[in-house]
């Protein structure tokens, strides 16, 4: 035993296992915030806590699990011994050698483990602390992995187990982020495997865990599992036991119903029937594939497009013509492409085999691999739809014998003369692999790149051979999508907003005069190396595209995609040759010693130019150097201002770790977006000339910084254009008409979209007015939200109009998960944030799971859920009616994100106040900081004027708009949401993070002798004012309250003793400001009251006015 049977920690009192078994218990970690920072496991298992406790720590099962399942070598365990003389808590040491499966570094490492019991009362809960050291790995001597395992009663005969983990550092390391990420992920995988193994063991030895006479199907948690507050990941969707356990085991063989695809066979034959289908029948209706109806699309969208031509034409182009073979050989550089003849598949449907050798461009491993492909038609009715299934094997790659890549291609009528094509894909596993995640990632990304290239090649081919694809007598400009494409449900990525091609593009352009003056980066009117004269102004009625889009030479990540008022030469010079860019670097970015050489020809006689630049860039990391020198080389790649211009920038930072083996490449493309506007695409990637153990962190931080830099530059350019409008917008042109004339098609294979909408005239003016925040062309310094277009186009229920981006949440909070998404609105899209409440209910899940809960429990919980949902809807209705510059607007709700309606709000790129200050604090002026304070004060005053109490105001739910103004979100919901978990408001607000801003009267540190001594723990305007004081302190200092307290337990201790955050220096917070902040923190049981809303707003206004003088 790890501690003596029935003994409660240090007390030695006898605890009879089984006493009080009708109550659900909680661990002390939940009460005092002692959980570690990441959840590795949260589960409910059949069996009492002492049984599960011993299974995980004391019997032979755990040793067998390590040796047999985890393949650990030389597992050594010492005997359990008292922690100290006379103690009833025990400890032990363990060691083993763990295999490593990385392509670089050692193949195994020794792990040293120390287990000790922290609390052991099986009538309440038990806690175990595990410390793991791996001294042989890089930086292994300066970190340990801590794991805390908590066992609690979940029901009379079931146990809830929570395992939390974190990495603790005793020294410095340049690869902290990499170590923490891999360590935490390893813990999650290990405990997930352990959970499954324990369930199998319990299933096999049921009599040991479930008392005689108990129906095993009744073993379920007594109430919903409330996830550990503040942690990523949710709880359990149900307690699984009985036969259901076996079905969830890893690596169990199972049947796989392969999704189906279409075919390239006898024209117009409808699948197995053999009936002749006349192409063209019923063409006035859009058709849909059977995959959409029966949900048999595969898990990832590789392509969704609309092409000119009927389905049989596009079908044969992709599968039966010489075009596809040429595409593979010439464009994709596939070698030895072999295709068999099409043959019957026991019916009118056909199949064929194919093989080729594909080049690989990795720095390690083989340089090429053989691919084996099997195509088969699943459904073929050209009057309705066609489906094709492709199976690809790559046996030569690592784990190649254990997986295949499935691809399903669907062809449907999009209009009388156009075809909608949807390609979905996924990896199917037939065996085990230690690099599953890596393989799936690269396989799916490779499919998306391949089909993006194929889409471009087909469009070029169709344009060249238009007569083959558009029937005689049909006006090619009429070939367009009849309605917006609804993206495949549940898939990432959006659809197409319209099929625009050929002459239709030109007809949509505004016929406005405009001069195209030559840039100074290359000689006037010269197109790259040819030296041919290009007449500025020719072809002004066409939208142009860069050569990078045509030949696939964009870099791997988009740093910026925008449309700016002004011709390409104007924007080009603004970014590369004017004094503006130097001022931007020095004043806005705080670069030091900016040096720029003159432009010179790239080579003798060349019309293209190059230059060098250098500057010293400040670094704001807590470790490492405080600044670094950057060396930049700019060169023009293509320069024809009648078409497009391309600039290539190479940045080197030799002083940073591994700085000598990588460079940051940036490609900036300028194209005509309309007669008087320019589309700019900036793509970037890191290129390596040597090896580094910190490639991942370097690439991540570099790409993120590029995105922040170009986002800042975009805003600065817009402000400059607004101030110098006459230089960029020709005389006589209404500046409100400067808008994008066609939707921006995002750069293929890149994340992120562009701007959507075909707008001109009066509609353009109104749209420009609505979207001036997003486009950055601010009419004045104060920006108000306009919700009329949202509310006029939709009811409050936005279900079906919101497309989720990515399967996992973008961020998580105390109550919910935040997803990024797109709201589609009559041919246009708006980036939105979707906040889904993270709850657990027995009403979730299938019927099999519901049977494990008694009827009384099920009905009572269902009624509770219904009551809370009704109250929740009333709260959301209040939010919908709010309209203020400093209040985050609610567009509506959607019901496909869980038990509760999910809230749909605009997406704010600058994120939360806390994150924004971490990034930008040092660059903010006193006026900008006090503007944020004023914004929060005004938003809070508005809420209280509408009888709305926030209740949970913190740095996480004050958000920063693109114009760097603050708005408040997530108000009035905290009290309501705690009802579902059965917890008190105070318990909810002791979640890690939010505690630092919470008024102490809402925290029940101890029970008052008289219930009337203190107000009930209910949020009020006074508690919001207290939180505002904390927000004000955070904005003025750039640090969260109690920033010097690393652990939440330290914050709890300070607040319970009435200790406020320390007084900052007078340089950051003046005496007047500090006095006002302290007034906001006035205890509720003293005579002096906290400031009112009007006083807060007035004080913020006065401080802002004084700072502006």
TrEMBL record:
Every Protein kinase domain range: 804-1104
Keyword Membrane attached: yes
Domain of life: Eukaryota
UniProt entry keywords in alphabetical sequence: Membrane
Residue ranges of the region described as Disordered: 256-282
Molecular function in Gene Ontology: ATP binding; protein kinase activity; sterol binding; sterol transfer activity
InterPro entries from the UniProt entry: Cholesterol_transport, Kinase-like_dom_sf, Prot_kinase_dom, Ser-Thr/Tyr_kinase_cat_dom, Tyr_kinase_AS, VASt
Cellular location(s): Membrane
Source organism (scientific name): Paxillus involutus ATCC 200175
Compositionally biased intervals (Polar residues): 257-267
GO cellular component: cortical endoplasmic reticulum; endoplasmic reticulum membrane; endoplasmic reticulum-plasma membrane contact site; mitochondrion; plasma membrane
Keyword match Membrane: yes
Predominant place of localization: membrane
GO biological process: intracellular sterol transport
SUPFAM superfamilies to which the protein is assigned, alphabetical: Protein kinase-like (PK-like)
Protein name: Uncharacterized protein
Occurrences of domain VASt (ranges): 35-206, 297-466, 554-725
Membrane-spanning residues: none
